[in-house]
Amino acid sequence: AIERTISIIKPDAVAKDVIGQIYSRFENNGLKVIAAKMKQLSRAEAEGFYAVHKERPFFADLVAFMTSGPVMIQVLSGDNAVAKNRELMGATNPKEAAAGTIRADFAESIDANAVHGSDSLENAAIEIAYFFDDSEICPR
Ligand code: CMP
């Protein structure tokens, strides 16, 4: 089924100027960009986005990292988009990410891991609504 998911290119990958290379992977694998914005997240925005992780030991480092520079946030649309995006990203820890995945190729560490992607269709809807108004999304 056609699904929507959130992708965030994190500050490490924006700083490395690999936005275009990451977009090419989406476009070459059936994922269309239907909304996008570059944004410097405030601490409150990052804390709210990652609220499910607020009791985890890495939460403070995660928020500090996600606010360390601009991120590129996009809504992707395509067949099986949630799982497809996660397949393209690879494992959360780049040391465990399969060869040829975004994290294997562009990430340095579990914190600076280049991209975020929604982990379920339910969370995708929540995460899309967190960053985009309906009027900012261009179905096509
Ligand atoms: P992301 O998909 O953005 O979701 C939460 C982030 O927390 C994750 O990617 C990692 O960058 C970061 N993180 C740091 N340590 C861990 C950990 N032990 N387990 C999961 N995520 C972690």
Automatic annotation (TrEMBL):
Its EC number is 2.7.4.6. It catalyses: a 2'-deoxyribonucleoside 5'-diphosphate + ATP = a 2'-deoxyribonucleoside 5'-triphosphate + ADP; a ribonucleoside 5'-diphosphate + ATP = a ribonucleoside 5'-triphosphate + ADP. GO terms for molecular function: ATP binding; metal ion binding; nucleoside diphosphate kinase activity. Pfam families: NDK. InterPro entries: NDK-like_dom, NDK-like_dom_sf, Nucleoside_diP_kinase, Nucleoside_diP_kinase_AS. ATP binds at residues 10, 58, 86, 92, 103, 113. Its main location: cytoplasm. Belongs to the NDK family. This is Nucleoside diphosphate kinase. It comes from Paralysiella testudinis.
